[in-house]
């Protein structure tokens, strides 16, 4: 029997960045908020002296358990999808802070071009430039960079971003709240090479603290120790801005916010008397297996991309996208990023084992439309990165491609090159395509009886062309850096393989817009079919970019929170 709980003003599904931001902002306004998090409670005390690469980086301690819930995958609609038992291309978080706990901290802004990509591309290059299989799916977002800027600024102040002005970036209302991180000798090596090529390198905007910092909500973050354990790890020093040490603490201090852990939401419940409203959510306590109903005036989906889509689909909210007719919106516009580059092998030994998740430099000379695309077979581009995140012996073992994978030569090359290789890589845009989408796979069920999400995705000709162009630019920089041998990942990408790690930056599935015929939510992230239902996160992106998406996720979450507060006060649909 389903047990009904006391009603709250707002319920968020997940307690990561989006859930934490929305909980903090709405609870500060006096709303009663509950966050349902399917993972366990963890805090900084749980991460003391646990630099365990096997446990965290290889066995995914902080991430979703695929034996309970996963997804199925295929490259095209004609293939049979099969379950993914080991995640690689995306790393959903599980527990307090979500994926925001184990992120690196790279925090860019998207470009003005990103938000008006269809209009700006067609005006400059013509309609055909978008590509025949992507033209209907590319859209302007319905919001401009200028409208987004104040939300970017707020997120950067909450997270204490360390950074410097980008000469190729958009106008800023304020400088970064913290100065950039330490510029190490190998970063100086990259900077010198890039400058000689007349490029514009800057220190990477970083959620790793360059100094002690108190944010506007009174939360304290400590100076980074450069221990080299950021990505796939939580921070034991509170030196990396994560939801659990910023917005979740802020929300809890109000006395208006509660997180219920080990609570897996299975359905959004629509009002039987008013099908334009939802009444709350059903969830299962994963420890006792009891089922509960949590009533709420407002429901906000703030979980990982696949789960946002899944909850809408199993709750029969919205129209599923059909690739044959290109009708429907739910599940459409799924995008990824390519993250390949050029690796240089050096005689010199570097202190690469030291670092931080967002200790690095980047340049935007080949990002967005910062360069001419007239004679190129692709649009957009990508930022070029050089990072010192810390190398570790299990995950990082860079050897020449022709080296045997075992034996004496393998051991010699592994030991010799462990701290003698440097990689310059891209974080590149991918665009929507009519055959890239999410659906449900009724063949495979999760542990709670719901169908698994099915992903259909593959690389395109534009992705191949873009990757070859950008990796050649990476090679030019590595050559200037003085490498004795260079290996470039610029062959045809082939079929997309979901298992190897490439980037965890995915987007789409519940895209935003100004027209319910081609979007799932409006620009306040309010669902078109349910007035009191909101969806936050990268699932609302129209396409991916050539920058890290977390800054845009955070900025949109602040805009969504503003919309939720206005809706709660006025009980009227929000206008774009």
From TrEMBL:
Q: Which residues form the Glucose-methanol-choline oxidoreductase C-terminal domain?
A: 437-557
The parts of the chain that form a coiled coil are: none
Report keywords, A-Z: FAD, Flavoprotein, Oxidoreductase
Domain Glucose-methanol-choline oxidoreductase N-terminal: where? 206-333
Which Gene3D superfamilies does the entry mention?
Answer: FAD/NAD(P)-binding domain
Report the family membership. Answer: Belongs to the GMC oxidoreductase family.
The record ties this protein, via PANTHER family, to: LONG-CHAIN-ALCOHOL OXIDASE (PTHR46056)
| Protein name stated in the entry | GMC family oxidoreductase
Q: What is the lineage of its organism?
A: Bacteria, Bacillati, Bacillota, Bacilli, Bacillales
């Amino acid at each position: 029997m389903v047990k009904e709980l006391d009603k709250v003003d707002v319920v968020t599904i997940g307690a990561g960045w989006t859930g934490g931001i929305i909980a903090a902002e709405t609870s500060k306004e006096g709303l009663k908020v509950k966050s349902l998090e399917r993972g366990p409670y963890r805090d900084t005390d749980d991460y003391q002296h646990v630099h365990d690469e096997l446990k965290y980086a290889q066995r995914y301690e902080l991430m979703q358990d695929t034996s309970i819930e996963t997804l199925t995958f295929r490259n095209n609609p004609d293939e049979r999808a099969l379950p993914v038992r080991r995640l690689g291309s995306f790393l959903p978080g599980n527990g307090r802070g979500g994926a925001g706990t184990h992120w690196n901290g790279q925090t860019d802004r998207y470009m003005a071009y990103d938000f008006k990509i269809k209009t700006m591309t067609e005006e400059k290059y013509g309609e055909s430039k978008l590509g025949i299989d992507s033209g209907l799916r590319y859209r302007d977002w319905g919001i401009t960079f200028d409208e987004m800027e104040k939300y970017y600024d707020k997120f950067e102040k909450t997270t204490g971003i360390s950074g410097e002005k980008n000469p190729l970036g958009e106008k800023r209302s304020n400088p970064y709240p913290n100065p950039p991180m330490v510029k190490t000798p190998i970063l100086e090596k990259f900077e010198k090479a890039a400058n000689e090529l007349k490029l514009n390198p800057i220190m990477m905007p970083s959620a790793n603290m360059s100094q002690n910092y108190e944010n506007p909500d009174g939360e304290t973050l400590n100076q980074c120790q450069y221990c080299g354990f950021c990505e796939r790890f939580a921070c034991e020093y509170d030196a990396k801005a994560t939801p659990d040490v910023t917005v979740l603490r802020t929300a809890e201090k109000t006395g208006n916010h509660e997180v219920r852990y080990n609570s897996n939401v299975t359905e959004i419940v629509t009002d039987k008397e008013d099908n334009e409203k939802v009444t709350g959510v059903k969830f299962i306590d994963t420890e006792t297996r009891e089922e509960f109903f949590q009533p709420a005036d407002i429901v906000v989906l703030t979980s990982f991309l696949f789960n946002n889509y899944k909850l809408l689909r199993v709750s029969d909210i919205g129209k599923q996208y059909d690739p044959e007719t290109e009708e429907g919106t739910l599940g459409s516009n799924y995008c990824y990023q390519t993250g390949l580059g050029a690796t240089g092998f050096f005689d010199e030994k570097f202190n690469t084992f030291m670092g931080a998740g967002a200790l690095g430099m980047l340049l935007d000379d080949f990002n967005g439309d910062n360069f001419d695309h007239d004679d190129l077979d692709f649009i957009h581009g990508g930022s070029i990165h050089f990072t010192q995140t810390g190398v570790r012996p299990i995950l990082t073992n860079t050897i020449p491609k022709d080296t045997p994978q075992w034996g004496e030569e393998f051991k010699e090359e592994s030991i010799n090159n462990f701290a003698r290789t440097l990689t310059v890589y891209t974080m590149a845009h991918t665009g929507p395509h009519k055959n890239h989408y999410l659906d449900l796979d009724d063949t495979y069920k999760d542990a709670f009886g719901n169908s698994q999400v099915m992903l259909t995705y593959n690389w395109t000709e534009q992705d191949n062309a873009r990757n070859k162009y950008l990796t050649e630019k990476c090679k030019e920089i590595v050559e200037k850096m003085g490498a004795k041998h260079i290996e470039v990942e610029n062959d045809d990408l082939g079929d997309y393989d979901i298992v190897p790690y490439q980037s965890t930056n995915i987007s789409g599935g519940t895209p935003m817009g100004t027209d319910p015929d081609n979007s799932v939510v409006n620009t306040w992230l309010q669902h078109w079919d349910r007035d009191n239902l909101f969806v936050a996160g990268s699932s609302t992106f129209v396409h991916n970019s050539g920058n890290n998406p977390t800054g845009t996720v955070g900025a949109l979450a602040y805009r969504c929170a503003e919309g939720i507060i206005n809706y709660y006060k006025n009980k009227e649909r929000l206008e774009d």
